[in-house]
Amino acid sequence: MTELDEQGRPEPPGAADESGTLLGFLEFQRATLEWKCSGLDAAGLRATVASSPMTLGGMLKHLSFVEDWWFSQWLHGRDAQPPWDTVDWSADADWDWHSAAADSPEQLRTLWQEAVARSRAAVAEALAADGLGQLARRTGPRGWSPSLRWILCHMIEEYARHNGHADLIRESVDGATGE
Questions:
Q1: Residue 58 and residue 47: Cα distance in Å, rounded?
Q2: Omega of the bond prior to 10 within 30 degrees of 0, cis?
Q3: Is the pLDDT of residue 154 over 90?
Q4: pTM for the whole thing?
Q5: How confident is the model at residue 177, as a pLDDT?
Q6: What are the φ and ψ backbone dihedral angles of 147, each rounded to 5 degrees?
Q7: CA separation for the pair 113, 115 (Å, rounded)
Q8: What pLDDT is attached to residue 106?
Q9: What is the 3-state secondary structure (H, E, C) of the chain?
Q10: Contacts of 24 (CB under 8 A, 6+ apart)
Q11: Which residues pair with 4 in a beta bridge?
């Protein structure tokens, strides 16, 4: 049984195998982002801090993209799906961040939740097939292909970094603090 903390986040397991530990920490970080974005309206999701244009809504959309990028496109070699398949990334490399202001809170939350659900399924598929050592089907320009283990560690880092930003933004919106 998964133990939940006071914010309803699943505690990473204290004693699990490698995949259980990595997935436990990723789920904790995902739940932290969900907590930081919970209960906010459009204005709250569009709020910025100081000179940074970063918003919680942009963060939700960016992490939706990153989930699909690493777990669907890189790990499984799948084609980009909507909305990512029609973006001119060369015209706006930060489209995911910038375009979020035009989306409703419901659209942003749904986009993120659906991306996370696809990622969970993609990871389960990869673990069942070849485990953490499975190399991504996509390769970089120098032939580099990360393992599922690397992708999971990278995603934990990606969420943890952005959750630090989320703490500051959320506090500026309504004073809510915590971890």
A1: 10
A2: no
A3: yes
A4: 0.96
A5: 85
A6: -85, 165
A7: 5
A8: 98
A9: CCCECCCCCECCCCCCCHHHHHHHHHHHHHHHHHHHHCCCCHHHHHCCCCCCCCCHHHHHHHHHHHHHHHHHHHCCCCCCCCCHHHCCCCCCCCHHHHHHHHCCHHHHHHHHHHHHHHHHHHHHHHHHHCCCCCECCCCCCCCCCCEHHHHHHHHHHHHHHHHHHHHHHHHHHHCCCCC
A10: 10, 11, 12, 13, 16
A11: 10
Q: What topology does CATH give the domain 41-81+96-174?
A: Four Helix Bundle (Hemerythrin (Met), subunit A) (1.20.120)
Residue type at position 118: R
pLDDT bracket for residue 2 (50, 70, 90):
confident
Whether 115 shows a pLDDT value over 80: the answer reads: yes
List the Cα angle 53/54/59 in 5-degree steps: 150
- Position 59, amino acid: M
- From 28, 68, 48, select the one nearest 170 (Cα to Cα): 48
Average pLDDT over residues 100-107: 98
Cα dihedral value 24, 40, 54, 71, nearest 10: 30
